[in-house]
Amino acid sequence: MKLVFKNVTIVNAYGREVRDVFVSGDKIVSPFDEEDARVINGEGKFLIPGVIDPHVHFREPGATLKEDFESGSLAAAVGGVTTVLDMPNNSPAITTAELLEEKRDLVKGRSHVNYGFHFGATGDNNEEIKKARGIKGVKVYMGSSTGDLLVSDSKKWVDIFKTAKEVDVPVVVHAENEERIRSRMDEFSGRTDAHVHTEIRDCECAKIALSSAIAVRKKVGNKLHVAHMSCAEEVLLIKNNLDSRLSCEATPHHLFFSEEDMVDSFLKMNPPLRSAEDMRTLWEAVRGGTVNCLATDHAPHTVEEKSRSYLEAPAGVPGVEFLLPLMLNEVKQNMLGFEQLVGLLSAEAARIFGLKGKGEICEGMDADLVLVDMEKEMKITRNMVRSKCGWSPYEGYLLKGWPVITVVNGEIVVEQGKVTEAMPGREVD
Ligand code: DOR
Ligand code: ZN
Question: Does residue 57 line the site of ligand 1, with CB under 6 A?
Fold first, then answer.
């Protein structure tokens, strides 16, 4: 299929210009004769590189009641996300080359958007990390969370980091200190209110874990990516250790909610919501460039599960379908530059995880594109949620700036909210 976006304002991380964009096959190409192409009027609209979400949990295999690759990737596509990197905390967790191949076979041909896989470290599976084909990151849960992946024994970290360096992928850390979590769980065991979650997994947990991860990285010299930054202390640690091989992400939930918003288990997640002051610091780190990229940590659980009491409810919130509109609304309100947003949502993730052909609109790059209408205003409602979990923490948000067309590998997958037949998603190189 051939496409032409006429007179559209393209926005890259480094600048914008008004021009025509030509798509043929799965690539952005040089101008061709428009006669045999679908021509889309882009006047007054913006074309951005497809959003890359480097941190999602699409729950396959093992928890497809919460989400599966079809529903998760559909939610992504509707939200302008054209590439996701999926986490390994499945059942079973993806910790062997064989399990990775099984997951690969399971997902193939069932994704609306492009995808890649992170691999789970156990502390004893470094040979499997070496054997695993095409992984995008090695996930280390320094503290426990959903699933059974955990490497709390600090002696194991050096070898994991060395192995990741050898296979040349970033270590992605969930930086919460397990020992402190455990001892505080005991200390606060009488409490059942939602707020106790933030107190148990406090910023000290994050700080201890992140300091040790950074120390190990310094020794080994590998690439380290810090998942879901949430505390001012973490921002400071990153600022004090700036290095092109150290990167970090922030989630929308840590940017739009603080602990004060936590009235029930729906906003329970790991790491938890923080103080309003931490939230402000995180926004500053996003605007000031300390945070490299945004990632949703899309972690769907059902309404029934999230309706349970604090102790019973699983941690995690969905986010993949509303990341882009939430952030476009910030651009619309002049809280963030549009070019800067493209860096945060696409260009940086492509650089950090080495995703070839992604993150930029120019000839020769993959045709993963999102047409954006900055005048479109819409309220998020539960009805519009495409994720199988069927709810969103952002219900009721009135946002200006929405994706109107999503193109994956040169094919329109969503147009004005309507999902097409195309299923062009494939594994990223
Ligand atoms: O809140 C979370 N949910 N944090 C995690 O680390 C895992 C995730 C999930 O998979 O549910
Ligand atoms: Zn996660």
Answer: yes
